[in-house]
Amino acid sequence: MVQKLTVPSIRACKVADGADPLVMVTAYDAPGAHMVDEAGADLILVGDSVAMVVLGFEDTLQVTVDDIAHHTAAVSRARPSALVVADMPWMSFHVSVEDTLHNAATLIRAGAGAVKLEGGRRRLPMVEALVAAEIPVMGHIGLTPQSVNLMGGFRVQGRSAPAALDLVAAAKALAHAGCFAMVLEGVPDQVAAMVTGSVDVPTIGIGAGPDCDGQVLVFHDVLGIEQNIRPKFVRRYADLHSEGVEALTRFAADVRSGSFPSVGESYRLSDEDFEALGLYSST
Ligand code: KIV
Fold first, then answer.
1. 212 plus 252 within the same structural domain
2. Cα(first)–Cα(last) distance of the chain, in Å?
3. 250 with 190, same domain?
4. Is 41 close to ligand 1, i.e. is its CB under 6 Å away?
């Protein structure tokens, strides 16, 4: 049996200490979770990116705790060995500590082993309260998509020396508050290297260069299902959109030509029952 990955085992994964880089991929349903798990990822993130890549929204601000809980439950029903991390959506941890605890508990009860939340020092009281309530927390700093309106778009962060030092300070504070790992999104690679070197918990990069303790990408980007948005940090390993359209086109052609379904793809009565059916219908 494959060993279930735990928060302490992930927390210990610093590349500088000889660990292999962590692999995190998003998933939002059971088949996706099976695929990511079979590929050997260490962590599955039920990201609020579900808003953009699955639900068709333009940003991540539209999803709710109930949405993430619904997708987390689907992912956890796949019983992955990877650690399932549920994203706390916008406004689920901004109002009060009580609210944050209640919302995080909903995600843990849906099957997550940890939660992730965006933001730096402003979120420290929430992080501390979650850890005190035995809920493991992954931080997320740099380009935080929930701040899209405040940032004036999805913009790379930490581009000046003061901004870079601010990110280092935020990372240290989050680690000190008890985060077991943190996502570094959309920051220059030198800044990501600095942050990674200044905390004793793993950093997991996305658009943050090669010097993090791991990397995360969105399922639909890796597999080439997402067609609309293609940031420069995405490497596509398949073109499932084109393959899917091609397969569906062949299905449509087979239906229209009458070649689907074949006899082998249909259910049949036995000759005896078919004859009896004739007798009944003629009476
Ligand atoms: O929601 C998400 O997919 C994320 C990753 C991009 C880190 O937060």
1. no
2. 61
3. no
4. no
**What's the 64 CA to ligand 1 centre distance in angstroms?**
15
Residue ranges in the chain modelled with pLDDT below 50: none
Query: Within this chain, do residues 142 and 259 fall inside the same structural domain, yes or no?
Result: no
Residue type at 234? V
Task: Judge if 150 and 256 occupy the same domain.
Answer: no
pLDDT, tens only, 80-97: 999 999 999 999 999 999
The full DSSP string for 170-207 is: HHHHHHHHT-SEEEEES--HHHHHHHHHH-SS-EEEES
Contact 116, 138 (CB under 8 A): yes
Query: Looking at residue 25, what DSSP letter applies?
Result: E
Ligand 1 within 6 A of 72 CB? no
Q: Which domain holds residue 247?
A: 243-282
Is the bond leading into 188 cis (omega within 30 degrees of zero)?
Answer: no
Residue 142: per-residue pLDDT = 98
The CATH number linked to 228 is: 3.20.20.60
